[in-house]
Design brief:
Layout (H helix, E strand, L loop, with lengths): L3 E6 L3 H12 L1 H8 L3 E7 L15 E3 L2 H5 L6 E4 L7 H10 L3 E4 L2 H18 L3 E2 L10 H8 L5 E7 L2 H13 L3 H10 L8 H4 L2 H15 L9 E2 L7 H9 L2 E11 L4 E11 L11 E8 L3 E8 L3 H18 L30 E11 L4 H11 L4 E8 L11 E8 L2 E2 H12 L9 E5 L4
Parallel strand pairs: 1-2, 1-4, 2-3, 4-5, 5-6, 8-10, 10-17
Antiparallel strand pairs: 7-9, 7-11, 9-10, 11-12, 13-15, 13-16, 13-17, 14-15
This protein binds L-homoserine (HSE).
Length: 441
């Protein structure tokens, strides 16, 4: 059978990784796919194709439309990332009857509903395994392997850069900016690294996972986003003292009222496996009603790990080329006409425990006032630590104390009110650092 001809848009970290893996494992891949898969055409700003990537017989262009309009190309791999021109190119590829593989989580999370509708109309596929959690086959696991289950919730470390930063800060006391720079050099970070540290990238991935888990349309705009930039080394230390690690989690949970879809730093008991996922590694814990918890772990970023997922999508599409479009695995796991309108809940209505850190004057009655406010808000305290604020040797004793509180499960809205009230106290000399706590049991 003739090889399947692929057009590649973008030859950066993931594009080069894809070419490398296709070349190195060509024989195994052809045995699996039933046909050889070759990169026939590459759109890149480079003036020539680099040696050693197995692209010596490939054509090159600076204009991606040359690739999209080429009748020989059956599958277009979009690796430009971002919104435009990626969206225009993908829609054009679909309009031209090409299948698409993309690693572009922002594109799928924000425009996926429109893209999938167009793909459906054209009878072609859009595959996006590499858009979530790099090399971990989590889309396939959720969409196919766990399709017997009602998924109750999932929680994931789904941004490698953020996890790398938190791990290096904790283990080596390294500076935030310094670790971020290294993540950029290693090709982990987004073009705009604030997407990594402010939770936007994780939010894109969570919106995708949530849709596939619960059979709802993609709704990135309703995702609560909070990044890691406000986490201080002392929070990591106090959390540890209380028996927790801090991880940046994306959480999607089904409740009777609707679906929680939120990204924020989270205290997790140290004994949970996911609390020990470090560096650029990602992990997604999925709770299904039949299977119970399953943990999916692997490299969340980087050239070859992400290429592993891109090539798996190429193999899947190659196998599906001759199948009846009506019998393919649906883009969002559930049949397009069977998606539900279960609402995404506003953040104010979720329930979690909370870690609170604040600084207050070290004088009688302060703690009583704070606990009174919490009590009035029906908020119970689970654990408490008080530390004299640090003073240098020879200085007079500090007049402030650092207070760390762990609450029991409370409604987010009630917690917000109590935090505002405590912050307004004259004796409270800092803002409150609040990190949500999840037992993930
Ligand atoms: N910037 C992303 C991360 C790349 O660090 O996880 C993989 O999606």
């Amino acid at each position: 059978m003739a090889p399947v001809k692929v057009g590649l848009l973008g030859l950066g970290t993931v594009g080069s990784g894809t070419a490398t893996v296709l070349k190195r494992n060509a024989e195994e891949i052809a045995r699996r796919a039933g046909r050889e898969i070759v990169i026939d055409y590459v759109a890149t700003s480079k003036s020539e194709l680099p040696q050693g990537l197995g692209l010596s017989n490939s054509r090159i262009t600076t204009d991606p439309f040359d690739v999209l309009n080429d009748p020989d190309i059956e599958i277009v791999v979009e690796l430009y990332g971002g919104d435009e021109p990626a969206k225009r190119l993908v829609l054009q590829a679909l309009a031209n009857g090409k299948h698409v593989v993309t690693a572009n989580k922002a594109l799928i999370a924000v425009h996926g509903n429109e893209i999938f509708a167009q793909a459906q109309e054209m009878g072609v596929l859009v595959a996006f395994e590499s858009a979530v959690a790099g090399g971990i086959p989590i889309i396939k696991a959720l969409r196919e392997g766990l399709s017997a289950n009602k998924i109750n919730w999932l929680a994931g470390i789904i941004n490698g850069t953020g996890n790398f930063i938190l791990t290096e800060m904790r283990d080596k006391g390294r500076d935030f900016a310094d670790v971020l720079k290294e993540a950029q050099q290693l090709g982990y970070a987004e073009a705009d690294p604030t997407f990594d540290v402010e939770g936007v990238d994780a939010g894109h991935k969570l919106a995708i996972l949530s849709s596939i888990a619960f059979g709802i349309p993609l709704q990135f705009d309703k995702t609560y986003l909070e990044g890691i930039s406000k986490i201080a080394k002392e929070d990591v230390d106090y959390a540890s003292e209380l028996g927790y690690n801090i991880k940046h989690l994306g959480i999607a949970r089904r409740t009777e009222q609707g679906i929680e879809q939120r990204v924020h730093p989270t205290l997790i008991p140290k004994k949970r496996l996911i609390a020990n996922v470090d560096g650029v590694m990602n992990a997604i814990l999925v709770q299904g009603d039949a299977v119970g918890p399953t943990l999916h772990y692997g490299a969340g970023a980087g050239g070859e790990p992400t290429a592993s997922a891109v090539v798996a999508d190429l193999v899947d599409i190659t196998r599906a080329l001759t199948s009846d479009p009506g019998n393919r695995v649906p883009h969002l796991a559930f049949q397009a006409d069977a998606l539900s309108d279960t609402p995404i809940l506003p953040m104010e209505s979720i329930q979690t425990s909370n870690y609170l850190r604040l600084t207050a004057s070290d004088q009688p009655g302060v703690l009583a006032t704070i606990t009174q406010i919490l009590g009035d808000g029906n908020i119970s305290i689970e654990a408490f630590i008080q530390k004299q604020s640090a003073t240098k040797t020879g200085e007079k004793a500090s007049e402030t104390a650092t207070i760390i509180l762990l609450t029991k499960v409370v409604n987010e809205g009630e917690m917000n009110l109590a935090i505002a009230e405590i912050e307004a106290l004259e004796v409270v000399t800092s803002g409150i650092t609040r990190i949500r706590v999840e037992s993930l049991s």
